[in-house]
Specification:
Layout lengths: L1 H18 L6 H9 L5 E9 L6 E2 L1 H14 L2 E15 L5 E14 L5 E15 L2 E11 L5 E2 L1
Parallel strand pairs: 1-6
Antiparallel strand pairs: 1-2, 3-4, 4-5, 5-6, 5-7
Length: 148
């Protein structure tokens, strides 16, 4: 009887774990991007054209964003991102996504309206049962920069 229970435990546990489903899925990621509900991991990596160096950790990113709001204030900021490809690991623990986007805003210091397209690469990972952003690299596409 003990052997039967042990065998059952050995074979059923992996099946139950697989039945719970993937944390990161293509649809989960598409929904988070479209609805602007992406959450970052505490140790996330972020680098964009707005900062001169990569920001490591959610706290550093939040601090740099607050500083940027003071140093280069913006009004009427509108942005969108369009995933072109999302690849999820078989386990659903990690994924990557790349795509393009647009960003526009009014620069309060110069009074000019700025608009451009972006290209990005983002890595996702499972953290505490949620699919969170582990790394983002985003750059403006220089040939699309408009300022008037």
């Amino acid at each position: 009887m003990t052997r039967l229970f042990t065998l059952l435990l050995i074979f059923v546990t992996p099946i139950v774990a697989m039945a719970q489903g993937s944390v990161c899925s293509e649809q989960t990621i598409r929904d988070a991007v479209q609805n602007h509900t992406m959450k970052s991991a505490d140790d996330s990596f972020f680098w964009s054209g707005a900062f001169d160096k990569p920001l490591i950790g959610k706290a550093e990113h939040e601090e740099a964003a607050k500083k940027a709001e003071v140093d280069a204030p913006r009004k009427n900021q509108v942005g969108a991102q369009h995933p072109q490809r999302i690849v999820v690991s078989k386990s659903g623990e990690m994924a990557y996504e790349y795509g393009t986007g647009e960003l526009s805003f009014d620069d309060q210091k110069t009074g000019k309206h700025v608009a451009f397209q972006t290209g990005y690469l983002r890595v996702w990972k499972s953290v505490d049962g949620q699919c969170k952003v582990a790394a983002t690299m985003m750059r403006p596409i220089e040939s699309t920069m408009k300022s008037n």
